[in-house]
Amino acid sequence: MRAKGGLAPEGYDKYAFEPFAVTVDLAVLTVRAGELEVLLVERGQEPYAGRWALPGGFVLPTESAETAARRVLAVETGIRDLSRLHLEQLRTYSEPDRDPRMRVVSVAFAALLPDPPEPHGGGDAAQARWLPYGSVGPLAFDHDRILADAHERVGAKLEYTCLATSFCQPEFTLGELQRIYETVWGAVLDRPNFRRKVLATPGFVAPVPGAARLTGGRGKPAALYRAGGATALQPPLLRPPSEGRPS
Amino acid sequence: MRAKGGLAPEGYDKYAFEPFAVTVDLAVLTVRAGELEVLLVERGQEPYAGRWALPGGFVLPTESAETAARRVLAVETGIRDLSRLHLEQLRTYSEPDRDPRMRVVSVAFAALLPDPPEPHGGGDAAQARWLPYGSVGPLAFDHDRILADAHERVGAKLEYTCLATSFCQPEFTLGELQRIYETVWGAVLDRPNFRRKVLATPGFVAPVPGAARLTGGRGKPAALYRAGGATALQPPLLRPPSEGRPS
DNA sequence: GCAAAAGTGTTGGTACTACACCCATGC
DNA sequence: GCATGGGTGTAGTACCAACACTTTTGC
């Protein structure tokens, strides 16, 4: 951020320090068929060749971390339509030994992608796949921790923001929205109360007039909603108390 | 995070890319005499020479960002006792043009320091001072934004964590604790209700038996408390609704 | 009719707001 | 006494969890 010693700006030596690589890593989550899934890539080379890892890559000289995140995701997974990708900076992981090759500082993102398209490997990734959140083995580098942090962040944001609609198709039923909460939180919610809560929050969802959809093949067709204009939930929709979470 | 192309790990060229500088910047807040203050340094050199800026500096090859943050703060402000410093990663600012000299990616921290000691300039800082939060003019680089983000983060964390005790001396009265909330939030709280709320949250504060302190020179001496073991507030202590904040 | 999913009503409890009021100290 | 700050009581309200219940569809 500031030059050392008495160097004038034009005398500033960009190469005076051991270089840092700056990368991005993405924990992309989705909900499919009531299951929480993560987008992972199989590493094609050492270290951790053959292991699953979060999609990630270098930030280029002209990019911000956010810009790099979108590009890297497109390259490594072959997913073309990222228009509905919700991207959010998580934190930066900077432990000196997190990559055995060199000093790598990684800006991690939590991301959501509804209606998950099939990915293809690309770039350095041998292959790319959606895998169930609960079943991912040890990932490369410190990606287990990044993924856990992302899950916790997303779970927390469901409480006090309208983020859940980012997991849904453009039009969705309240039952589908509830499934998002239940899947991410790993908890069961009371349907009548959930419904009231959502509808009582102005701008959370907006009804699609006259539209309805049969969800389970049986039962009453459910009314359809779109995401409303609001971003925050006031009051919040709290997770049921759990022993696992620090409270 | 991963090598490009077919380079073997040992063939990996650390210097293949335009180097990034990785820095830390700290928004250190305190409350003194009912006023919110920020720890700033005056820049000794271009760019922005003579302007106030957040303390910050390079991350060294063997440091994590957190380690660098503590070292940089000690060097630039001369503050020796950082044992009670509360440090928390805010986010990373990576816009390509945020520093005119070169590509600088900065990991920003929000920090709290109770009972603020007098700082001295040091390192690249011509001087270091505590300045009232409301009166800081335009800062160097994008530090206005970082500072605003830090303030918002701290304000939000007061709602659902025990963070407020990090602004206080080891022993404090409930009135002093309430002042912290009021100062950071810029809002007035109801004293009886605040008191009940704090005492009803298990582990937020613990009474110091028999101890009392005269606060304003007049009035009944107030009982003293220490920080309890809890870190989260359940239920939260919400800011009074305000139009300024997005809700 | 039966099962399944959507939608409505009700009730008791918790927690919060907005006060009024009492207590202990310095001047 | 009076001002100042600490501490307690209380009534009304909002919100929420936990149900029971009705409605609409497929089979």
TrEMBL record, chains A, B:
Domain Nudix hydrolase: 19-153
Source species, domain of life: Bacteria
Gene3D superfamilies, A to Z: Nucleoside Triphosphate Pyrophosphohydrolase, Winged helix-like DNA-binding domain superfamily/Winged helix DNA-binding domain
Alphabetized InterPro entries for the sequence: NUDIX_hydrolase-like_dom_sf (IPR015797), NUDIX_hydrolase_dom (IPR000086), WH-like_DNA-bd_sf (IPR036388), WH_DNA-bd_sf (IPR036390), WHD_NrtR (IPR054105)
SUPFAM superfamilies recorded: Nudix, Winged helix' DNA-binding domain
A Pfam family recorded for this sequence: NUDIX
PANTHER family reported for this sequence: ADP-RIBOSE PYROPHOSPHATASE, SLR1690 PROTEIN
Protein name: NUDIX domain-containing protein
Organism: Streptomyces mirabilis
Lineage: Bacteria, Bacillati, Actinomycetota, Actinomycetes, Kitasatosporales
